Amino acid sequence: MGKWRRVPPLKISGDGRKAGPWLDHARDLYGEETAARIARYFAFKVQKPNVKINHALLLGGAQGIGKDTLIEPLNMQSARGISKKSHRRQSSAGLMGM
Q1: For residue 19, what is the DSSP state?
Q2: Are 74 and 46 in contact (CB under 8 A)?
Q3: 3-state secondary structure of 3
Q4: What's the longest Cα–Cα distance across the chain?
Q5: What region, left, alpha or beta, does residue 43 occupy, with left being phi > 0 and alpha being psi -120 to 50 degrees?
Q6: Is the dihedral of CA 66, 4, 34, 46 positive or negative?
Q7: Shortest CA distance to 11 belongs to which of 74, 77, 75, 69?
Q8: What's the pTM value of the predicted model, to 2 decimals?
Q9: Domain boundaries, the chain
């Protein structure tokens, strides 16, 4: 059974302007309004990893449109301190400005 684990607070440093390609990708997939909602959801989860949100996003769409690429930054943050995997997919790192 899964257990909730606290994640140490993230010290955020970086350049928000580098999120442009990710935001463009989100808009291309889901449109302006839904992309903004996704961005707010992700930002909240990164800034407040110890606060559980009582809902989830359901990202629909055909296979291969880029849903995994869209959630990769959040997966990387969520895995921090929890997963011992040493190799993360790098395919979307360039798109995310990382």
Answers
A1: G
A2: yes
A3: coil
A4: 39
A5: alpha
A6: negative
A7: 77
A8: 0.67
A9: 16-79
